[in-house]
Amino acid sequence: MAAMGDRSLALCGEIADGLMISNLCPLGYTERAVGILRAAAQTAGRPSPEVVQYVPCLPASDTWPEARERIVRHSGIPRAEVAEALARLRRGEAGAAVLDDRYVEAFAIAGTAEECVERAAAYRRAGVAELVLTFAGPHPEADIAYLADYLPLRHDARHGQ
């Protein structure tokens, strides 16, 4: 079930097997949503539903709407600044000129492969069981390969290989 509002998140906890959280939902929103979901499931005497989240991802060796009020509130970026950034983007200004690192931190996973994996782990700690990365850069195949090349090293290191 996809849900955003408090009542629909609670309903999801009561009846659904899982929750899908959309792109552009910052980690603070996810933590809050998972809390509502788990509390409702517990009250209903059900196991906590699995959580799947979509997150833009831009791995690189060097790093570079009116949105819903809840989402903006949990981003840590003032609503007026988000509204102004969206207006500038709609006028055609380049994202790199409009969006500073706060937006990347709030709404995406970006950085080196190691930084991307560390950021993804934060979503796991927030309760996300499956993280869907949408590769947003100009060369998604190369970005996927770059991140994939890093992952076996992490897996081997965890298992002492």
Task: Kindly describe this structure.
β1, α2 and β2 form a beta-alpha-beta unit. The C terminus is likely disordered. Strands 1, 2, 3 and 4 form a 4-stranded parallel sheet that branches. This protein has one domain: Luciferase-like domain (TIM Barrel), CATH 3.20.20.30. It is 56% helix and 14% strand. With 161 residues, it is α/β, with parallel strands linked by helices. The chain contains 8 helices and 4 strands.
Distance between the termini: 39 Å
CATH homologous superfamily classification: Luciferase-like domain
Radius of gyration: 17 Å
- List the secondary-structure elements in sequence, H or E: HEHEHHHHEHEH
CATH class: Alpha Beta
Main β sheet profile:
4 strands, parallel
Global outline:
globular
Helix content: 55-70%
**Which consecutive residue ranges, at least 5 long each, have pLDDT under 50?**
62-67, 156-161
Give a quick rundown of the structure.
The chain has 161 residues and is of the alpha/beta class. It contains 8 helices and 4 strands. The radius of gyration is 17 Å and the shape is globular.
